[in-house]
Automatic annotation (TrEMBL):
Protein name from the UniProt record: Ribonuclease
Signal sequence extent: 1-29
Comp. bias intervals (Low complexity): 170-183
Keyword annotations from UniProtKB, A to Z: Hydrolase, Nuclease, Signal
InterPro entries attached to this UniProt entry: Endonuclease-I, His-Me_finger_sf
Record PANTHER family: ENDONUCLEASE-1
Region feature Disordered, mapped onto this chain: 164-188
Taxonomic source organism: Streptomyces aurantiacus
GO molecular function, one term: nuclease activity
SUPFAM superfamilies recorded: His-Me finger endonucleases
Length: 280
């Protein structure tokens, strides 16, 4: 190729580049499932996900604060499909599946990946942890709060027993398979990666169950000695955890699965964690 031909090709290439720079390419709208951006820390910005439901699912709550917001959200999320306690086993194998091993689930407090087949009541098994302790309102395992997937999670049998019905607070000592969780005589502190998850599950329960059906009115308070009363603490600590540990990709995925595949209702504090401060 001659020098003159090379020059002609360079000129042509420059012209094409200039035209491409001036073009505005069409944008592709994201679907709700893919609308969430992920940060470098693994936490997610919930704005895009929440916006997908603000004009529909949450339409009656947008713009409200305080008691009015809590009342509106209760009316939205209370109409869930209830599942049996036995059905919870299979549901947790889907909602809490290990993203790196489809044969396993991730245990809530321990962070351990354990085989889905090891569900049961023996040492080495995982069972169904009620994040809002059953005794705090004495609702048992009947369909309703006792089977609500928004607060039921897989956990090691022995770790579940160690947590018992303790309220949530900071401090305590480590234990076998703790994964960084701590406990003392009257409280339990989950590992850092799920502190926000725990807070949002407890506060979901407080909005979903308001005593206008056959279940008790569940409410958060700032105590760690709640026992069998329908309260769970400590609210001040739960609010801090909600701020410190924003919704993760796995938490949002779980919320979506419960909504679309099982109960037909959402945890509003995963979609809008700022609503915690608006209400409490």
């Amino acid at each position: 190729m001659s020098v003159a031909q090379i020059g002609s090709w360079k000129a042509l290439a420059a012209g094409v580049s200039a035209v491409l720079v001036g073009l505005t390419l069409p944008t592709v709208a994201a679907t709700p499932a893919a609308a969430t951006a992920t940060t470098t820390t693994g936490a997610t910005t919930t704005g895009a996900t929440a916006a997908a439901y603000d004009d529909t699912y949450y339409a009656g709550a947008i713009g409200k604060t305080g008691t009015a917001l809590k009342t509106s959200l209760h009316g939205i999320i209370k109409n869930q499909t209830k599942i049996s306690y036995s059905a919870v086993w299979e549901a947790l194998k889907v909602t809490d599946q290990d993203p790196n091993n489809s044969s396993n689930v991730i245990l809530l407090y321990s962070g351990i990946s354990r085989s889905k087949s090891l569900n049961g009541g023996d040492v080495g098994d995982w069972n169904r942890e009620h994040t809002w302790a059953q005794s705090h309102g004495d609702f048992g395992t009947s369909a309703g709060p006792g089977t609500d997937l928004h607060h039921l999670r897989p956990e090691d049998v022995q770790v579940n027993s160690i947590r018992g019905n303790k309220d949530f607070d900071t401090g305590g000592s480590s234990f076998t398979n703790s994964g960084g969780s701590l406990t003392d005589s009257n409280s339990f502190e989950p590992r850092s990666a799920v502190k926000g998850d725990v807070a949002r599950m407890i506060l979901y329960m407080a909005v979903r169950y308001e005593g206008d059906d056959s279940w008790p009115d569940l409410e958060p308070n700032d105590a760690v000695t709640n026992g069998s009363v329908p309260y769970h603490g400590r609210l001040s600590v739960l609010k801090q955890w909600n701020e410190q540990d924003p919704p993760s990709t796995s938490e949002q995925r779980r919320n979506e699965l419960i909504y679309s595949n099982y109960q037909g209702n959402r945890n509003p504090f995963i979609d809008h964690p700022e609503w915690v401060e608006s209400i409490w």
